[in-house]
């Protein structure tokens, strides 16, 4: 019988042991020389300003999501373009419907003010 | 080779929903039309439901090797369209909202329709997400309210974790069998070449993800908080439609992947037996202490998930049919109960037990309707809830699983206690404010429309059970 189960158990055990071992080893053997600079949140060497829990505009994320949609659309367009001749009219019409749905989505986003940076 | 376009005909209900979704997006942008969005959503959903109904019972076939077109899927398509229609009517009667709200409901219905036919792990995962993501937004649709935001955030966080767990289970299943197609996975199992314990782990993880959707103990934690914080029509929708979607997925998974008589090396009905007993017991015991009616109904809906799991524990045709029948009954009685809670909380500003004090004198019709929904939830004859439970218990007895049936009956007795507590509050206590609570005609008609099926199915249930039996014709080799 092709028994994968011991391998799975081993995976879990090894993962758990490695993690716990590293945690335990640093507690016991790691050098501890605390200083106030080490307590700062590390942000590429820049000195932190203010609290992280502040309200911030989500405009960027909206634009980011819409970018992701069109990025994925491109991923669909490439294979379609390559197989364009073989797919004939059916492929063309299908892709146009797909693009039309996306276009409506983009229009919707524009009209709802996603790209207005105020 | 391009796929045969005629296959698209099997997707007519979904195509209607997709076109409707796009049309609703455009309508949302045109100011004068925006007010008609609710009505338009009703038309779209009704069209999709009717088209699905005309396809009944149809033939069983698998399309693109990923999608089942069978009576089971059609049954659930009609069910989901109906559930969403009731949610839209409920919202129209209850509060003013954006067209976006109806857009999301239609999107959710689309996800659920596709889910009912999913015959592939990836499609199953995608459709579950298509149902979940609109649900997360709908939970937070009251933008200004903290409780609504809390509900949405909790739903997203718990949902993300359970989705991750389910995906891990699916990846194990894929690793074991090298396929995401249900048929190929089952064939691989039947050859008996995979380790039973790894298979058990994979199915357990997938079950955890779906158990979250149906609020199965121990994955029920989100349920009371989300139900309390979300707007009441949405709470009612969550308690019926996505829950039924979870059960649809669970049904297809258990029936296609775990065929009866197959020596799996582990007793999977036992797993459902334990889950069922734990779910209904915890739901009912926790409901006793609740003062907030939405929380109470949330725990009651957890308990009902437990009752429905009894059909899986029985693991017989009779048990699965009983699940389908109970889902139909559950749709009407649960929507009804939440609708009454919404009517009262809209007037009183909160949905605590004391707000219902003396409702029998302030709004006799609404209080009487509420009593009927609650009695049906308990499962008292001659209401539909009784017939539903009768079939579930009958399926258990038929399989000789008397202990679980006894636990179920004891649970029904416990549930009687907290449901009747509400009825006592309504009829045997003097109202805090002795002024009549007025309800609109639309609300009264909707209540009546939800009550009639409960009475009818309580007396004349054979056509519905026949439909449930016919729906249980899955694509099996």
Q: Can you describe what's shown?
A:
The complex is a heterodimer of chains A (118) and B (477). Chain A has 118 residues and is an all-alpha fold. Chain A has a single domain (5-111), classed as Methane Monooxygenase Hydroxylase, Chain G, domain 1 (Up-down Bundle), CATH 1.20.58. Chain A is 65% helix and 0% strand. Chain A contains three helices and no strands. Chain A has helices at residues 5-29, 59-82, 84-111. Chain A is flat and about 70 Å long. With 477 residues, chain B is mainly α. Chain B has a domain at 267-477. Helix content of chain B is 74%, strand content 1%. A two-stranded antiparallel ribbon of chain B has the order 1-2. In chain B, a hairpin with a 3-residue loop joins strand 1 and strand 2. In chain B, helix 1 (12-29) runs antiparallel to helix 2, helix 9 packs across helix 12 and helix 16 runs parallel beside helix 18 (441-459). At the A-B interface, helix 3 of A face helix 1, helix 6 and helix 8 of B.
Question: In a few lines, what is going on in this structure?
Answer:
The complex is a heterodimer of chains A (118) and B (477). Chain A is mainly alpha-helical. Chain A has helices spanning 5-29, 59-82, 84-111.
